[in-house]
Design a protein that fits this description.
Layout lengths: L11 H11 L4 H10 L2 H10 L4 H14 L14 E2 L13 E3 L4 E3 L15 H8 L2 H10 L3 H22 L6 H12 L8 H12 L15 E5 L6 E6 L6 H17 L4 H15 L6 H15 L11 H7 L1 H15 L5 E3 L5 E3 L4 H5 L4 H39 L4 H13 L6 H5 L7 H14 L3
Parallel strand pairs: 1-3
Antiparallel strand pairs: 2-3, 4-5, 6-7
Helix pairs in contact: 2-4, 3-4, 5-16, 6-16, 7-8, 7-13, 7-16, 10-11, 11-12, 11-16, 13-16, 16-19
Length: 452
């Protein structure tokens, strides 16, 4: 809150100056403003103070967003200033110089796709935790063989969780294939072709789903049972805009990496931007979560060999996940004009591309940071603890009875399900070869090995 004496004058220059100083840059507002206010008005504002920081940022942003050149002369020898104030919004640490405006372009994306994130106190606190270092330190205290087993479990668990979020239970091979795709995230540069390849892995049997970028409208929601009228919770980007938007997503990924943008900011912006665009008929949700892995891996944010199981954390917090998704998609709905198609789909009638190019991803970044924190503080330590306990259990168990590993795993599962006791049905079936004395000793071993 500011006092009345700070209120800007009721004119365009004063209002914009106030917004830049106290609220940061909102590209969605600016692109609409630049479309309706004559260029001559902005030229007058800039020429009034041609060397001022506000004027040069406004000049740069106008030409960057519109691709139109204003009639402004070189401001002369002045120091470069950043397009984004890095104390207000997350920006590239390594921007490129615009010598015409004497501005450092530290915007994380391009005019085709550039979500922005405010530097809130919540995100400042998350960033100060230095989660990659904490994860690496935790891994360094664990035997490498156990760490490798923990990483393998977390990877497969994340793959299964990503399907579960969509209400699917994939076969073992299908979950394993997607797990391999997650493990390779960050190893190949993004492209539309790479997205298409990943969609094929996600879908598996493509006989009933059209692969590649969709050629029709799209929405997330339901249909009225009587009229078959679409009832959207979210309307996807128009199919005519998909090519330019996806090129923007690809460019954002490369620019964020080269410019050392905070990896979690990059991950949230890419992933949620992608899912709002919804470029495919099917597979968008899993590709959206894969993008989180991609952004973190390509920036070496996660320790080598370890995938942060973001999908598993999301699955445990589905209500928060939906709230974050709807924090932008729900307020956007009234601004999208559409009509029903004969196939029960939607056809977008107005120009909506800028809604998917520019949005505030602050809440989305906080959510992803929370998922990564849960991995470091809960998922990884829990899996390491389980493996260490299991190894203790198995070592002593083999002194009582020589049992194959598959049977040991089954025995541990049954004991866990029944609070450390082997149920009568299991004694009489799978483990009828064990004596009562052996079972009593095994239950004691289990209790001791898995004691917290």
């Amino acid at each position: 809150m500011v006092t009345p004496r700070h209120a800007p004058e009721p004119n365009l220059a004063a209002q914009l100056n106030f917004a830049f100083r106290y609220e940061g840059i909102d590209l969605q507002v600016l692109v609409k403003l630049f479309a309706v206010v004559p260029a001559a008005d902005f030229e007058s504002i800039i020429k009034a103070k041609p060397t001022g920081g506000f004027s040069r940022r406004l000049w740069f942003l106008y030409e960057w967003l519109t691709s139109q050149t204003l009639d402004i002369e070189d401001p002369g020898k002045v120091r470069f200033i950043p397009a984004l104030d890095p104390e207000q919004q997350f920006a590239l640490a390594k921007g490129d110089l615009s010598s015409r405006h004497k501005v450092v372009n530290n915007l994380p994306g391009t005019p085709r796709f550039c979500p922005l994130v405010r530097r809130s106190s919540v995100l400042q606190n998350y960033a100060s935790l230095d989660l990659p270092v904490r994860a690496a330190q935790a891994m360094g205290k664990v035997r490498p063989d156990i760490m490798a087993r923990a990483a393998a479990f977390l990877l497969l668990n994340d793959s299964k969780s990503s399907f579960a979020i969509e209400g699917e239970r994939p076969s073992g091979p299908r979950a394993a294939r997607w797990g391999q795709a997650i493990a390779q995230a960050g190893s190949r540069p993004l492209s539309v072709g790479e997205f298409n390849r990943l969609q094929h892995i996600v879908i598996g049997d493509a006989r009933f789903v059209r692969l590649g970028l969709r050629h029709e409208g799209g929405f997330v929601g339901t249909h009225d049972r009587e009229t078959n009228m679409p009832v959207p919770d979210h309307v996807s980007a128009s199919s005519e805009d998909l090519e330019t938007l996806m090129e923007g997503v690809v460019a954002f990924s490369a620019r964020a990496l080269a410019g050392a943008l905070d990896p979690v900011v990059a991950a949230a912006s890419l992933a949620f931007g992608f899912v709002y665009i919804h470029p495919y008929v099917d597979g968008n949700g899993r590709l959206h979560r894969w993008l989180i892995h991609h952004a973190l891996a390509q920036a070496n944010y996660s320790p080598p060999g370890l995938v942060f199981p973001v999908s598993a954390a999301i699955l445990r917090n589905l209500d928060d996940y939906r709230r974050v998704l709807e924090s932008y998609s729900a307020p956007l709905l009234p601004f999208i004009e559409w009509r029903k198609t004969d196939s029960g789909n939607v056809e977008v009638l107005n120009d909506t591309v800028d809604y998917y190019r520019f949005f505030d991803a602050t809440a989305h970044t906080a959510f992803v940071y929370g998922c990564v924190l849960k991995t470091v503080e809960e998922d990884l330590p829990e899996e390491v603890w389980f493996l260490q306990a299991f190894d203790r259990f198995n070592t002593v168990l083999q002194d009582i009875v020589d049992m194959p590993m598959a049977q040991v795993e089954l025995l541990e599962k049954f004991l866990a399900q029944n609070e450390g006791h082997l149920a009568k049905r299991r004694r009489e079936n799978e483990f009828k070869a064990l004596t009562d004395e052996e079972i009593a000793r095994i239950e004691a071993i289990y209790s001791d090995a898995f004691a917290r």
